[in-house]
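Could you help me review a protein record that somebody else here produced? My question to you is simply how this chain folds and whether the tokens agree. Thanks in advance; the entry in question is below:
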Amino acid sequence: MRYFLVALMILPIFAANISKKYMVANNCMACHKWVVDKWKTSWHSRSHYSKDPLYKATLQYMSKKLHRPLEAIEIKCAQCHNPRMDVKKMSEDEIISRAVGIGDKKTDEAINAAYVKDGINCIVCHNIKAIKESHDPDKRGYKSIVWGPNDTMVGPFADAKSPYHKTMQADHFLHPNKLCFVCHYNGRNKYHKLVYETGMEYEQSGSTKQCVECHMSEKRERRLANIVVNGSLPKIRTVRDHLFMGARNGDILQKALDVKASVNNGRLTIHLINRTPHRVPTGFAGRMVVIEAHFGNTVKKEIIKTQYLDRKGRVTVPYLGKKKVFDNRILPKEDRVVTFDLPSSNLHEVSIKIYYRLINDDLEKKLKVSDPIFHKNYPIANLKLKI
């Protein structure tokens, strides 16, 4: 128990120096409103479990299966989800005490601190002084980061100035994949199985495209701030929207696949050409893509997803998967061919719907997430063919 108390005294130093001025993104809105408004639409703004129902349901499921406090699992996942969280590990003493309903105030305060609940916000990405690049999945998140001085915001411009904070240019903003791959390169579960590997997929694709070219926006000219500095407005620069675009907040899905279809000899053939430098879907291994062919009242489907089994051979979340038994995701540059036999020779038209789901059918049943955004079909392509 003595070690536990000492640990609690030591661990908070990781983020104790964050100034209240920079703790939450809303504090940055006075100068950078358009940046923060775009960021608020992203999953980065919802990386804390209190703001993401799927993440919370996953933690609750893991807590139940592992017989460990939800807070202990959240602290582990915060390595990427909330890298500025003060507490980095829960001691075994506290795990035991929480089993009998005795928590620790400092741990609870660390997990629910305002700057932690604010997600991957300004003070996370723009206070990184340097990145220690690593292919090791255990070195993700804060373990790859060297934080900068508390009062310094880091970005891509050498001549940036602000009356409210110091500024610094950094290489990882000039080569932004380095920043993205702090968290999105790869990750593995307790059985050492890779459960996401977007960065590895990117490198294997041979692409030279930057993540931000698709997931932020096209470059555009505008002012980064809307305040007067030394009698004049900041200069107009070439910048990108901070969308960190996904299925919910942009047109990225419609650009992911080239889709072509034809009907010959009683068979529908669909070509799906992956235009992205990673698999589709990628990232969280619970996503799926569905191809539906509507032949009048008859609907045929092909589902693209991954599936993991736990140590007892049951379907489970990727983070508890001892074995990956299914993975038919579309590789970068792959031309995936999907075929369906026509159910009747009397058809005159076939309708094709291709859509993305934030959670696949297996996990939807297990996690029981009620938020409608996780039950929505996000369109990739819709086609109609005359037969």
DSSP finds 13 helices and 18 strands in the chain. The mean pLDDT is 94. The first strand starts at residue 128 and ends at 131. The two ends are 74 Å apart (CA to CA).
